[in-house]
Design a protein that fits this description.
Elements (H helix, E strand, L loop, with lengths): L2 H8 L9 E7 L12 E6 L5 H9 L16 E6 L3 E5 L10 H17 L3 E9 L6 H12 L4 E6 L6 H15 L6 E2 L8 H20 L1
Parallel strand pairs: 2-4, 2-5, 5-6, 6-7
Antiparallel strand pairs: 1-3, 3-4
Helix pairs in contact: 1-6
């Protein structure tokens, strides 16, 4: 994402989510929605707060907040403002599922991240209290290997003091080789929602720009 474009978008209001249509769940490419809208995928380790964050963004309880982590077993597609898809990816790192299902997740998710031409970027969620795990680092390596745009977001910002949060932002920026510190958000306090929407807008705009040249 270019710093010039990012600065331009940051100075204006984000495009609010006005319309959400759940378009289904799928693993295999043939079962996914076929419209040529850009995809913004959301990925994170189980219990990082992914479903809560999606509901917070959408202002609807469409992404189920499960009582136990690891319940998202498909790619879930939400069409936003008839403009782009938010794609809820299966949580990773949850051990209490069968090996065959874990292998299927890994195969289909890896294929999606590597080959989906509509993928404009991946929002990767990391718990601000703990920083990147080995599984988080593995996902970052995969995205870098396939040249995918990364938008790193630190969740549960209300759980730590401001000084620790700032330190973690700079630590994660350095560890992941990011151009700027990752955004910290809190579903509980509402912090960071407009900033995250602006960054999503930027990813969508840049994807469209590359298709028009």
């Amino acid at each position: 994402m270019s710093s010039r474009g990012w600065t331009r978008r940051w100075l204006i209001d984000p495009v609010e989510i006005r319309e959400v249509n759940f378009r289904g769940s799928a693993l295999k490419p043939s079962d996914r929605p076929q419209e040529f809208f850009p995809h913004i995928a959301v990925a994170g380790r189980s219990n990082v707060g992914k479903s809560s964050l999606l509901n917070w963004l959408l202002r609807q309880n469409l992404a189920r907040v499960a009582k136990a982590p690891g319940k998202t077993r498909m790619l879930n597609f939400f069409l936003i403002n008839r403009s782009y898809f938010l794609v809820d990816l299966p949580g990773y790192g949850y051990a209490k599922v069968g090996r065959a299902l874990q292998e299927e997740w890994g195969r289909e998710l890896g294929s999606y991240l590597a080959t989906e031409e509509r993928l404009a970027g991946v929002i990767t969620l990391i718990d601000v209290r703990h920083g990147p795990t080995d599984l988080d680092l593995g996902l970052q390596d995969m995205l870098l290997a396939h040249g995918k745009e990364r938008l790193v977001v630190l969740t549960k910002a209300d759980k730590v003091k401001k000084g620790k949060r700032t330190n973690m932002q700079f630590q994660v920026q350095k560890e992941l080789g990011l151009a700027r510190p990752p955004l910290a958000v809190s579903v509980k306090t509402g912090e960071g929602r407009n900033d995250l929407l602006r960054l999503i807008d930027e990813l969508v705009d840049e994807w469209r720009a590359t298709r028009s040249t």
